[in-house]
Amino acid sequence: MNTPLWEVFVRPRRGLSHTHVGSLHAADAETALRNARDVYTRRQEGVSIWVVPAAALTASSPDEKDAFFEPAGDKVYRHPTFYQVPDGAGHI
Amino acid sequence: MYGNDFGDNQSLLDQVADAERALHEAAQARREPGEGADQAYFDEIVSAEQKIEPRDWMPEAYRKTLIRQIAQHAHSEIIGMQPEGNWISRAPSLKRKAILLAKVQDEAGHGLYLYSAAETLGISRDELVEMLIDGRQKYSSIFNYPTLSWADVGAIGWLVDGAAIVNQVPLCRCSYGPYARAMIRVCKEESFHQRQGFEILMTLAHGTPEQRAMAQDAVDRWWYPSLAMFGPPDGDSTHSERSMAWKIKRFSNDDLRQRFVDMCVQQASVLDLRIPDPDLRFDEELGHHAYTQPDYDELMQVIKGNGPCNRQRIAHRRRAHEDGAWVREAAAAYATKTTETQQEAVAA
Fold first, then answer.
1. Does A45 touch chain B if contact means CB atoms closer than 8 Å?
2. 3-state DSSP assignment of residue B87
3. How many Å apart are CA A30 and CA B169, to the nearest integer?
4. What is the 3-state composition of chain A as percent helix, strand, coil, each rounded to the nearest 5?
5. Backbone angles phi, psi at B288, to 5 degrees
6. Which of B105, B110, B132, B154 is the most exposed place for a label (fewest CB within 10 A)?
7. Nearest-by-CA chain B residue for A41
8. What digits encode the pLDDT tens for the residues B221-250?
9. CB-based contact (8 Å) between B342 and chain A?
10. CA distances from B298 to B217, B301, B307, B310 (A)
11. Residue from the list A2, A3, A62 with its beta carbon closest to the beta carbon of B36
12. Are B263 and B166 spatial neighbours (Cβ–Cβ below 8 Å)?
């Protein structure tokens, strides 16, 4: 019997985003949430937990990584450091 | 300070913090994109101290080695719950009981972090559990020794967890990302285990003559098996060289064992307990302690299944797994039923 795999995301404190911390097995979402509490927050590591069925995740493939992310590669003008700011121009 | 003074005079927790910082810094260092799926790419990432991640290309032998090592590590955490769990109901006070309970829960947690890391390599939890109870995968031989007195709980924390930390701190820098991250978490929590053991022994060693004798007896029995935890001597170690090249392993068995001995000698003097080795002495020339090696024939026997508790440990694990089958089945049936009810509600 294969118990479904869940990916666990924890928000450490108010103001921070949820971060992936690991995975676990559970029959349903409610159980996954309780197990996640016991496995990943025994020392108050979180104030909020998400559990997501691992089967529901779609991931980009590392083999196609170069082509997939290539469009952003030649657009250095998207970074503020691309621009020259003359001395004396303030607040920019 | 406990767990202090090895090598560069850093505490174990500082070394874990350093490893964590290195992991974040390596992630910041941008690499020029190259071809993404061959040996050259893998070698380049490993030599740049960057991490290999689950879906990256990796040599098949690297994957197999990691599955074997991480699984063995996870199994050790799970089986390790038994010798200590033995004392939960007999702890001498409510405080000690609550602490021991938390510690044994941590061991379960560590096992689960590690199973989760192993599963990223493409092996299922069910297979891992089966391989443990069928004896196809191993766990640390140390857990095949019995816990005869309350002082053993102290000796396990101080010596066994101490040796485990010395072994595990370098693994925080392992080249496989999920394993390195799990180890950072484990090591931080493990530090509490070592200190609680030290405190138990400290209390006993400064208690009544009977308590003191009990503490000494525990140290006498756990010393050599703890030394054996670092594995066979370097000359006989089968997987070491390749694991070093892959940056799974960072130090040799004998180097780590030496580090552990040096650390313990100082701590034993604080405890005022004797390490059961008449030949233990500081070698000025080496700058390290000379010590008696553990009995490696005994280690091999215990690994082969002939230790004092091997059969008991596996039988217990198998029983727990089989007795839990109805719970897993009921949970699965409930999940199916709930999903169906929801689907019907949506359809209606």
1. no
2. coil
3. 35
4. 35, 20, 45
5. -135, 170
6. B105
7. B109
8. 999 999 999 999 998 877 778 899 999 999
9. no
10. 20, 5, 8, 13
11. A62
12. yes
Residue B84 pLDDT exceeds 80: yes
Integer distance in angstroms from the first to the last C-alpha of chain A? 61
d(CA A64, CA A50): 29
Residue B2 pLDDT greater than 60, yes or no:
no
Alpha-carbon gap: B318 to the closest alpha carbon of chain A (Å): 16
Please count the other Cβ atoms lying within 10 Å of the Cβ belonging to residue B260: 23
CA distances from B37 to A34, B24, B179 (A): 38, 23, 21
Structure tokens at B172: 């925080």
Nearest CA in chain A to B103: A42
In chain A, the residue whose alpha carbon lies closest to the alpha carbon of B115 is A24
- Is B112–A24 a contact, with Cβ atoms under 8 angstroms apart? yes
Residue among B77, B107, B116 with most chain A CBs within 10 A, to mutate: B116
Give the 3-state secondary structure of residue B251.
coil
Interval A13-59: pLDDT, tens:
999 999 999 999 999 999 999 999 999 999 999 999 999 999 999 98
B328 touches chain A (CB under 8 A): yes
pLDDT of residue B62: 96
Preferred mutation among B35, B113, B121 to probe A, highest tally of A CBs within 10 A:
B113
DSSP bridge partners of B299: none
Q: Tell me the per-residue pLDDT of B281-323, one tens digit each, with 9 for 90 and over.
A: 999 999 999 999 999 999 999 999 999 999 999 999 999 999 9
Interchain CB distance below 8 Å, A39 and B328: no
Strand partners, A11: A48
